[in-house]
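Sorry to interrupt, but I need a hand with the structure work. Could you write out one complete protein record for me, on any chain you like? Could you add the entry underneath, on a fresh line?
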Amino acid sequence: MFKDISVTELIALKNKGDLTVIDVRSPSEFLDSTIPGSMNIPFFNDEERAEIGTIYKQVNPQAAKERGLEIISAKLPAFVKEFSQIKGKKAVFCWRGGMRSRTSATVLSLMGIEVFRLEGGYRNYRNSVVEKLYSFQIASDAFVLNGNTGSGKTTILHRLANEGYPTIDLEGLAKHRGSIFGQIGLTPHNQKTFDALLLEELERLKCSPYILFEGESKRIGKVMIPDFIIDKKESGTQLLIEMPIEERVKHILEDYQPWEHQEECISAFLRIKRRIHTPIAKQIQADLELKNYDSAVRYLLEYYYDPLYEHSTKQYRSDHIVTIKANNIDEAVDKIRQYLNTKK
């Protein structure tokens, strides 16, 4: 017979690499949010789940169970085979730890495949994430990458992460670059996915002497950053990157590739057009329509993003700012590396 395990037990085994976590909910539920690192072997597909839900509401629960049994009976051989191909320990979960995960675990146990079942399902996991984030405190010092738009902050962060420095990529967790143009070419995460990924990163770095992250606003795309991170950002040391505008324009073009997303770029620009002096706004729109992207980006930096950034940096105390002057990303990474190495 299968064994139930708690969220704490599941996460501990998963983090050790001793457990494969399997979400047996429908594909759309899995895409909406899941336990990070899980794989999806759906008990019902989206259409089947919708059909059973309709029967449950319009007929009765017993009729829904009978239809569910009829559907899964035809799929059991393939369902069991898929599980049998996964080596090592396995755990299944559904929304509430109910019928789908219970039936999955029971059938698999009868076929000689040992599995755990997550108590309370994904709902219990989600509640655990919210509770932990609500009470989380960062004991480590914070170093915050700041600088005008296009300074290569995300690239610098990734370079330092690859070298083993303790970093959190908030934009990466949100799948959004943090500006009005931020979701171009991306599929942003929702709050549930962001929270789960963020908690994993925070737990991973909780013993680090410091953490390094970008200076983000309260909202990134669809998600809100917890207050304790905003507080840490505002009290942390600001590593202020200064870089030539030509280099910043190049970074933005490399990152966003507007020639692949012209309509999305124009649509995003129209949302902020009224905030820019009319002649300049007309020129930016014309440049975007004519594919003069270098010019459009430069005007956006000079007349929109740079003034915004200048205003936001006034909130920081001068003794909390370390200026990093660099001609390119390589220089910036080298100088930040040298600075951080004095803090170990």
